[in-house]
Design a protein that fits this description.
Structural class: alpha/beta
Number of helices: 25
Oligomer: single chain
């Protein structure tokens, strides 16, 4: 018997219902790009068109609310996850200043407007003002897509969002408590205690649990599901503490920030699923709330809505302008700050719905007297539509200009050049980590190429082609998961060193990332001498990173970078430090640099402000054993070495591997050799 599909409006059959929403998500960017309308605004408008107040194609039922709530939490979680923690700490004072600007100005103007312009009581006016103070990072995907999430304007705004939303939602809690008569002494004790416990649990317990999980579980699907669990668990704990779930989602993102590198496959999966499914569902669900008919049926609604739009826009624009002037920022940065902070949605909806459901009594006709009446509820929907429209255009203009400026700004040394990284792979257990380190060594724009090489012994009777192809495919899949194409190279040769040298010449390789594996710690020096020193180092002049991962790169708490005297004199030292800076910036790791005074000065200048680094002047060779002994298990030891007879070569380097094998068991190690010719010199192999 054939099943009949129910096309009765509104759609109830999940198949056509879900299909319609997916078609909107697919078609919106194709159509709106031609009309120069921001994609986010288009999804909100689409939600209004298909929603119960439009053509009534789809109801805003529990399934839409569930998906929309997940999308909202996803936006806040991504904001916490993508923020640069070093910049966040450095700009914490500025975020606090902006947070207070964007909270206090709307509170003062909003309260005055509620009392004098709309004739509301003080409690209602204060609650209304808190709605203006809060905002939702609806336009955050715009800055994320354009790659400017680490710009100072974005970092300050995201940090300030947490401050103003938390304060606004606390005002909501207090006003409702006062209106209902429960704001006694015990109310304050419970509120402060629960919020404190919640923050401590998320910021301290979540990283500990996550680090242990990522060390033990390497399955891609399990890791992604775990991230979702932590996201929604953080949101749940926030609600249990008496504050809005969006605060919990943001703090969960901050807690996992250092454990999910921006260049990792896991981050790519998180962003892909969020931007393609969850966040569009949220925007469509917001649009479904818009009822255009109320604007024609009630003069009071239009009046309230107009006042709310004017106050919210003026207050947020004033806060952005004051922030720009206070910290001497550009006009485009002001636009981004205003655009990110002007859109009203999540916290505003939460506040208006809570206030609308608080009934203070009844009028003579028996109708309920609400803390926030129908005019405020409908005016809020109008305010959401208008502010999201203004915010989308402002953010898009400012972000595009900033991205263009950052893209054309010149960088010193070899940063503007393409990197070509070669990864010799021969062990299944270390492929993922070698590819991960290589991805992290590349700049954010992925300007370069990755190559994976496996060498089959040409003299062997068993070529093992299937195993080689399996290793190369695994490397390619790991890179593809991070949205990066990796070229596979399979070679027959009498030695690995010959094959590597040949590929370096043919592909213009700038860096080699290789591993030490399949051996005990005590045999590291012998294996290294045989396969590296007599091969890669003697026959290539590129940067070489020899990596022994003891645990995933993302779970490392701190990196120790030990640099011998005169290393800064090596030709390739600048490019080596750039690679290290990329790795540290992309993984969010902290680093302590141990070197002599001249070397420290050079590294500090080249590291810049993109890395959270501390510098310790040290006589490296005298302090070497002490540095090894004091390293923790969750630290990576980086040792800059030199090829024999080069400027910074020292006879102590011959003993480094021996001491590492005996005193650094269970710790990740990276041995870094700087290039010996300019990476821009295409004739370096003609001698």
């Amino acid at each position: 018997m054939l099943l009949a599909i129910d096309f009765t409006l509104p759609l109830t059959d999940p198949v056509p219902k879900f299909l319609l929403i997916l078609l909107i998500i697919l078609a919106a960017p194709l159509i709106l790009n031609r009309l120069k309308i921001p994609y986010l605004l288009g999804l909100i408008i689409a939600g209004a068109v298909i929603g119960p107040h439009g053509f009534n194609l789809v109801l805003r039922d529990s399934s839409i609310i569930l998906s929309g709530t997940a999308g909202l939490l996803y936006i806040m979680f991504l904001a916490g996850l993508e923020i640069d923690m070093g910049d966040f700490r450095r700009n914490s004072g500025r975020s606090l200043a902006f947070g207070m600007y964007t909270f206090m100005i709307p509170m003062l103007i909003g309260t005055a407007a509620g009392v004098w312009a709309l004739g509301f009581g003080m409690e209602t006016s204060v609650l209304l003002a808190s709605m203006f103070a809060s905002h939702t990072l609806i336009t955050y995907p715009i800055v994320s897509k354009l790659g400017i999430t680490k710009n100072q304007a974005v970092v300050i705004t995201v940090g300030g969002t947490v401050i103003t939303d938390t304060l606004a939602l606390l005002v909501l809690t207090v006003i409702v408590g006062m209106a209902t008569g429960v704001a006694d002494g015990m109310f304050w004790i419970k509120l402060v205690g629960s919020v404190t416990v919640f923050a401590l649990l998320v910021l301290f317990l979540f990283p500990m649990i996550s680090r242990s999980f990522f060390k033990l579980v390497h399955d891609n699907i399990s890791q992604y599901i775990f991230v979702l669990v932590m996201l929604f668990f953080g949101a749940f704990l926030a609600e249990a503490a008496g504050i809005e779930s969006i605060i919990g989602a943001f703090l969960a993102g901050l807690a996992l920030n250092r454990l999910i590198p921006s260049s990792s496959p896991l981050m790519n999966r998180i962003e892909f699923v969020g931007n393609s499914i969850f966040i569009p569902f949220f925007l469509i669900s917001v649009g479904m709330l818009i009822d255009y008919r109320v604007f024609f049926n009630s003069i009071e609604t239009i009046k309230v809505g107009a006042v709310m739009i004017a106050v919210a826009t003026i207050a947020k624009l004033t806060a952005a302008w004051l922030t720009q002037k206070t910290f001497r920022m550009s006009a485009d940065q002001r636009r981004v700050i205003f655009g990110l902070s002007n859109s009203q949605a999540a916290a505003t909806l939460a506040a208006v719905m809570v206030g609308y459901n608080v009934i203070l009594g009844t009028d003579p006709d028996g109708a309920p007297i609400r803390l926030l009446n129908d005019s405020v509820l409908n005016g809020t929907i109008l305010m959401i539509l208008v502010t999201c429209t203004i915010a989308s255009f402002a953010t898009q203009k400012g972000a595009h200009n900033i991205a263009a400026e950052e893209g054309t700004s010149g960088n010193e040394s070899t940063e503007g050049m393409e990197q070509h990284i070669l990864i010799p792979v021969s062990n299944d257990e270390t492929v993922d980590e070698l590819v991960g380190l290589s991805l992290a060594a590349m700049p954010k724009n992925r300007k370069g190429n990755l190559y994976a090489l496996n060498v089959i012994d040409a003299m062997s009777g068993d070529p093992g082609v299937k195993r080689s192809e399996s290793l190369l495919s695994k490397a390619a899949k790991t890179a593809a998961a991070a949205d990066t194409y990796l070229k596979k190279i399979l070679r027959y040769d009498i030695s690995i060193a010959n094959a590597v040298t040949g590929v370096v010449h043919e592909r213009n390789i700038t860096d080699i990332v290789t591993g030490l594996h399949g051996v005990s710690d005590k045999t590291v020096p012998a294996i290294f001498s045989e396969h590296i020193t007599k091969g890669f180092l003697d026959n290539t002049d590129v940067n070489i990173f020899v990596y022994r991962p003891a645990q995933p790169l993302s779970t490392i708490k701190r990196h120790r970078l030990i640099i011998p005297p005169l290393a800064e004199k090596e030709i390739g030292f600048g490019s080596l430090i750039e690679r290290m800076r990329n790795i540290l910036a992309n993984t969010g790791g902290k680093v302590t640099v141990y070197a002599g005074k001249d070397t420290v000065d050079t590294v500090r200048k080249r590291m810049g402000r993109s890395v959270e680094a501390t510098f310790t002047e040290s006589d490296v060779w005298s302090d070497f054993m002490e540095l090894l002994g004091s390293a923790g298990n969750d630290e990576t030891l980086w040792m800059v070495l030199s090829r024999k007879d080069r400027l910074s070569y020292n006879k102590n380097m011959t003993a480094v591997l021996y001491h590492l094998s005996r005193n650094a068991a269970g710790r990740s190690i990276v041995l870094a050799y700087p290039a010996q010719a300019s990476l821009g010199d295409s004739t370096r192999y003609l001698t």
